[in-house]
Amino acid sequence: MKSQTPQAVILFSSTAHALMAEKIAKTQGFPCKLIPVPRHLSSDCGVCLRFNAEDRDALEAALRNRIDWTEICLLSSS
Amino acid sequence: MNKNIVYFDNAATSWPKPQVVYLTADRYSRSIGGSPGRSGHRLSIEAGRIILEAREKLASLFGISDPFRIAFTKNATEALNIAISGFLSSGEHCVTTSMEHNSVMRPLRAMEKKGIELTVVPCSSGGELNPLDIKKAIKKNTRMVICSHASNVTGTIMPVEEIGRFTRECGVVFCVDAAQTAGAVSIDVEEMGIDLLAFTGHKSLFGLQGTGGLYIRKGLETEITPLLRGGTGSRSEFEEHPDFMPDRFESGTPNTPGLAGLEAGVSFIMEKGINRIRKKEIELTRYFIEKLRAFTFVEIYGLQEAEKQIPVFSFNIKGVSPSEAALFFDEEYGIMSRPGLHCAPAAHRTIGAFPRGTIRFSLGYFNDTAELDRACAAISDLAGRRRVS
Residue A2: pLDDT above 60? Predict the structure, then answer.
């Protein structure tokens, strides 16, 4: 799926954490979606949370101290 | 629901469940059905959301601030095996009570053969534990105190709050077997000083069979070896098993339909309010104890004090074996009870009912006084027939 807005993903060590992060993000009104982890980022079979890159700081603040994540990566716009 | 059945075996598994439990499990199986946390498609994600919901509801019910401190298991027995076999090592001392179920006693006896030292603190013939006896049993090498929250034989509630206070003081891990109380008696792991809480989903939490869990206090998970290792949907590139909660103790596809039902059961409890549920069960207990006491030919075990027990009753009828009585209740009155030792031989020795066993009636939120009246008629009928023959 192509998107006009630059997108980023947050990776978690556990799917349980990804689901919790999605819940927190959605409750706070961040547009986001759980997607399979893109192959070029990790071969993990789990999911990661895709969101609008411009929300990065706000989303990090919302998740901090509640959920641990492993990394945040920008997705190429192609 | 079969109206001719009086179900008094809720300590083995609760029945019936709230309607919403059946409906939720069915809905999950038909319209979601994905493997949670595995594949990333919408049905898999939705399945994962249901498990997260169940975890959060249970955490809130037990006063657990971080839901990921709960690992789901197939029952309380599995949770207790993780807590016992995964935590204790040779040379360490463990304290338990003489009222324990075999789900605690058998793993402990097996660990004793592997070199742990075990102290079984005796309880009174009413099944009551003096918390100071636990305190006295704690030694330098004591690593864990483990006890049930309430006995599955007499219903006696154990003084977990008092025990939790001094285990915390001496830095000993406190494990509670809440198989009989989770959902029926208020539990707060912080207030009660509980480090490990084993619970089952299919009794007073109104979930389906094949569900349960273990709460593990923060930091303790790395000291516990998992019973199972395998796929977790996380860290797939590594062949080493993850060390974080809850994945460390949740290998393989879980019982998602069961957990969907459990989530519905816990929601039902929260809507009703656990204090209201407890109040109703105390009233039923008081009612039945009074009736039962009027029978001169009935021997009742346990404290017979409604506030100090859950609605579990062990008794015997003069001249009738427990198995004979249970068969009579089932065939003649449609009453489902349980005869025998209830998987707790130590408890039966404590109350003086070994090896004969007892008849056990275990009630739940959905029972009523009319059913207890029918049970009393059945008891009186059986005793009368015995006197005539």
Answer: no
Peptide bond into B131 cis (omega under 30): no
Smallest Cα distance from A57 to chain B, Å: 24
Residue of B nearest to A35 (CA): B40
Report the domain count for chain B.
2
Q: In CATH, what number is assigned to the domain containing residue B49? A: 1.10.260
Q: Rounded to 5 degrees, what are φ and ψ at B298?
A: -110, 130
Please enumerate in sequence order all residues whose Cβ is within 8 A of that of A52, keeping only pairs 6 or more positions apart, or say none: A5, A6, A7, A8, A30, A31, A32
Say yes or no: A24 contacts chain B, CB-CB below 8 A.
no
Tell me how close the Cα of A54 comes to any Cα of chain B, in angstroms: 24
Q: Which of B48, B55, B237 sits opposite A42 (nearest CB)?
A: B237
Boundary-marking domain end, from B256, B272, B288: B272
Tell me if B234 and A42 make a contact (CB, 8 A cut-off). no
pLDDT in tens, B214-238: 999 999 999 999 999 988 877 777 7
Of the candidates A20, A36, A44, the beta carbon closest to that of B234 is on A44
Give the predicted TM-score (pTM) of the model. 0.95
CA distance B370 to B335: 12
Inside any domain, residue B232: yes
The answer to whether the complex's ipTM is over 0.90 is no
